[in-house]
Amino acid sequence: MSSIIAAPDASHLPLHLVEEGALDAVTATLSEGHANWATANGFTGALGQLCILPGADGRPSGALLGMGSAVKRRRGRFHAARAAAGLPDGDWSIASHMTPAEAEEAALGWHLAAYRFTRYKADKPQKARLVLPAGVDSARLAAIVAGECLTRDLINTPASDMGPEELESAFLHLATEFGADAQVIRGDDLLAENFPLIHAVGRASSRAPRLLDLRWGTEGPRLTLVGKGVCFDTGGLDIKPASSMGLMKKDMGGAATVMGLARMIMGLGLRLRLRVLVPAVENAVGGNAFRPQDVLHSRKGLTVEVNNTDAEGRLVLADALALADEEKPDLLVSMATLTGAARVAVGPDLAPFYCDDERVAGALAEAGRAVADPLWRMPFWDPYETLIEPAIADLDNAPSGGMAGSITAALFLRRFVTGTAHYAHFDIYGWQPTAAPARPKGGVGQGARAVLDALPGVLGL
């Protein structure tokens, strides 16, 4: 059953959003019995505090949700969705005044709170349903939720069931659903088609590497999305310790996120020409694995000295970006769970992004704030270019020293985008380490909703 219903009626139960310190203003609108009940239960409006109001027949007749202080609310998002798990079965409508942005966030958060990953184990569904707040576009909401749920499902699926072949199947299913054209280049055909870096990273796995390519739309500006699809990352011959390998099923989070974003775009029927590129590989250990100090050739013609086989994501992205750049799209976006350095810099909740264009960067940052999809701009810092230039090749995939790791990775990728005017790279985490409102523990999309919101201004849609 859906967690959102569209049309309000008198049978719906009111949910009052109460700021801390403003309880009297709300209880003044309630019956004396309900006001006394809230006071007797110690309800203060503290953030997340829930008080269910009883009816004369003992069944719920409404509820109060604490929204805390303005300072506390700034420490998180999707606060109205805190009620979703605690309310009993019923159709609930928010009785408090909300701005359009607050109404959209409440509806989206409520719906995302209902997400369950049930492929391997049943889970209790969310019982409370929300009446769609006035002014919220139900079709847009449905498209965004469907895209985010696709992203979460892909990331949450372990590598045993989400290798390159299974990611390809999900990719082709997405293309079929929306009538898009899709092509796949697999195995040694990658060498014949000049994708040597993708082949080098994935060749040691028993599951063949491949490049997934989707096209949709026949008119409008060109948007190309490139997502890192490393379905599992052992680190290769520079093998990861067990403590670092535990979450590597999520190393295809960039691919999952661009596929979710593509689903939003196609679901909304935006007037643009969309292309999605996903290099899908498994970085495995084998006799034919690429080695430290190997020098690899790229589609762009640049040579790359491998100084760490665990810095493989930038290699597969490089060939895909070079292909995307040959078409010179109006906007090129790459997304990848690329560096631990980004997590050290900004933690798991912020998605750092890189963009040289002030207009595009500003639009993305503003969109992130508007749709509760937080971003943080990082610099393409030109003085660090020398760090990615080794002695015997054009580029170094893993500069020594360990400093500015996210920046040097972004600079590496930028070397493969020379003909496209507007390029943005997102170094995402793709994982919610602890449950939060609208975000259960597990795979999560980052940056997709911000990009979607920014597209009209950036591309003139």
UniProtKB/TrEMBL annotation:
Keywords: Aminopeptidase, Hydrolase, Manganese, Protease. Residues 308-315 form the Cytosol aminopeptidase domain. It comes from the Bacteria. Pfam families: Peptidase_M17, Peptidase_M17_N_1. GO terms for molecular function: aminopeptidase activity. Belongs to the peptidase M17 family. This is Leucyl aminopeptidase family protein.
